[in-house]
Write a structure and sequence with these properties.
By secondary structure, this protein is of the alpha/beta class. It contains 13 helices and seven strands. One of its GO terms (biological process) is methylation.
Length: 281
C-alpha cells in the first residue's frame, strides 16, 4: 500500500512516546535522499511526504545519523537471522513506521509488527496486512500477544526492539524478558540500552529534548538483562563506534570518517549507548 499523492497529508495523532517514532522515520528519509546514502528506504521518504507533521524540528540533528546506523545494525541482524532461518518469525516490538519488512524480507518469513493502538491505526493507513505480515495493536507489556506469536510453526524467532524498551520502567522490561523466555525459549532478542547517566542527562539529547517523551530505564551492563532469564547469552554488543565490520565497511566514506572521529573523541553520549543481541534460554 503506497501513499496517493492526490490525498491530503495524514496528521498523526500520537502519544508522547509514540511520537518519537517519527524521529528515526525522518532520519531514514533524509538518508535515503542523500547521493551517498548508507541506507535505501524509499518508503520512508514516501511516508514523510504523506504526513502532516513538522519534521523541520529535527532537521540537521546529529542523532539522526545515529538512528540510521542503529537501524543498519538491526537490519544486519535480521538478514543474518533470515539467512539461517528463511521461514523464521520476525517480531517488531514498537514497530512505529519502521520499514524493515520492505528492506529485509526474503519472501518466506512470518512478520508481526507490534505497537500501541494509535500507532497501529497510523500504520494501517500506509501498510497492508498479508498472510505473512500481521499488525498487533497492543502494548508490549500485555501478555496475550505472545500467544499469537507462539502459534506460528517453525520455532526460530527474532524479536527486534529498536528504540522502545528504554521508555519502559525497568520492572516492565524485566517482566517482558522473562515472559518471552518462558513462552518462546531460544528466541533472539535485539535491543538497545542507555546507561543510567544518559537517562539522567536526557534533557541534553538533541532530538528527545524536542519531544515530551521520557526515557525511564537505564542499563549499565547488558549481562544484568541476561541474568533476568538465567541461561541467556549475549551474542553481540556494540556501540555506534564499534559496529560489526560487515556493517562498518559497507558505509559510505562520509559515515566511516564520522565514526572514526567519534571513536577518537570517546563521547559519553556515544559510548554509553549500546545495541545488543541476546539468545534467551
Amino acid at each position: 500500500m503506497s501513499h496517493d499523492a492526490s490525498h491530503p497529508p495524514t496528521r498523526p495523532s500520537l502519544g508522547a512516546v509514540q511520537e518519537t517514532l517519527l524521529i528515526p522515520l525522518y532520519g531514514r528519509a533524509v538518508e535515503h535522499r542523500r547521493p551517498d546514502a548508507a541506507l535505501t528506504d524509499p518508503r520512508a521518504a514516501e511516508l514523510v511526504d504523506a504526513l502532516d507533521y513538522d519534521f523541520a524540528r529535527f532537521a540537521e540533528l546529529p542523532s539522526l545519523t545515529g538512528s540510521v546506523l542503529r537501524t543498519l545494525l538491526f537490519d544486519h541482524w535480521t538478514r543474518d537471522f533470515l539467512g539461517d532461518h528463511p521461514a523464521g518469525t520476525v517480531v517488531e516490538i514498537g514497530a512505529g513506521l519502521n520499514t524493515r519488512f520492505e528492506r529485509t524480507d526474503n519472501g518466506r518469513a512470518r512478520w508481526f509488527e507490534l505497537d500501541l493502538p494509535d500507532v497501529a491505526a497510523l500504520r494501517g493507513a500506509f501498510f497492508a496486512e498479508t498472510p505473512r505480515r500481521t499488525t498487533l495493536a497492543t502494548s508490549v507489556t500485555e501478555p496475550d500477544w505472545l500467544e499469537e506469536v507462539g502459534r506460528e510453526p517453525g520455532g526460530a524467532r527474532l524479536f527486534a526492539a529498536e528504540a522502545v524498551l528504554p521508555f519502559l520502567p525497568e520492572a516492565e522490561v524485566r517482566a517482558l524478558v522473562g515472559r518471552i523466555a518462558r513462552r518462546l525459549p531460544g528466541t533472539l532478542l535485539a535491543l538497545d540500552t542507555h546507561t543510567p547517566r544518559l537517562v539522567a542527562d536526557q534533557d541534553a539529547h538533541d532530538a528527545l529534548s524536542r519531544t515530551d517523551a521520557r526515557l525511564r530505564w537505564g542499563c549499565a551492563d547488558i549481562e544484568v538483562v541476561a541474568d533476568w532469564a538465567p541461561g541467556s547469552r549475549v551474542l553481540a554488543s556494540h556501540t555506534l563506534t564499534s559496529l560489526p565490520r560487515a556493517v562498518h565497511d559497507a558505509l559510505p566514506p562520509r559515515h566511516r570518517a564520522l565514526l572514526d572521529d567519534l571513536a577518537r573523541r570517546r563521547l559519553p553520549q556515544v559510548e554509553e549507548y549500546r545495541m545488543h543481541l541476546l539468545r534467551l534460554p
